[in-house]
Amino acid sequence: MQGLPAATTSGLSAVSAGGLFGLALKSGAVLAWGDNNFGESEVPADLSSGTAQIAAGWLHGLGLKNGKVYAWGNDWYGQTELPASVASGVTAISSSAVHSLALLRNGQVVSWGSRTDVPGFAESGVDAISAGGDHNLVLKAGAVLAWGSNTFGQTTVPAAAQSGVTAISAGYEHSLALKDGGVIAWGHDNYGQTDVPAAAKTGVVAIDAGWNHNLAIKADGSLVAWGNNSYSQATVPKPPVCGPVTGASAGYEFGLVITDRSVPCRH
């Protein structure tokens, strides 16, 4: 993974950490850097303006513009072969290792790549989506629903996550939900990724699950990280991450955050 390009030092509205590359959204333009063995850092020209959302997978990227999904990069499992249904009316996108999800305006989920199956409960009324390694999460009327691989219990939704949930995030083999400001985690715990630290049990406003580590943003702008720390991906640096943090994304063995630099750091 290369260093951050100069263009990412200001004005970002979103970031997405993939396998060994990163994406950022700046004034509607998609920026990419890192590995480019499969064209994952070569953003389509159409996404140089007007882009609303981004999502980085293992070796491929997604962008959402005017309700249409764009895909580029590795296509070993058909992850850049977009179904006709995502050419318009899409409101959200999510990308994982080798498959992706899109949410249509009518609340229907579309899946392509290594996983194309969508259960009946995800065909209408869905509010949010998240693609994991080989499993998926959706949020529907405050309840988390899941399907796909359950080797480590990642699709066995705990009772606490079956109502009142406001956000979801699927990792490689684990899952996260946000409820009443606290993180709920389940699935594979080989790196402690489902051992939620005390700091992430209250006051959390946003979550993101990576391959084996997680990031959570708190209401005060602080960042909490836990799980695999082989490359310090779960060690929050201070500085430059001294807050307030406004966006965060956990990737394979690295993380990306957006900070509000108009607010002085307090040491």
Automatic annotation (TrEMBL):
Domain of life: Bacteria
Listed GO MF terms: guanyl-nucleotide exchange factor activity
InterPro entries on file: Ran_GTPase-activating (IPR051553), RCC1/BLIP-II (IPR009091), Reg_chr_condens (IPR000408)
Annotated GO CC locations: cytoplasm
Name this protein carries in UniProt: Regulator of chromosome condensation (RCC1) repeat-containing protein
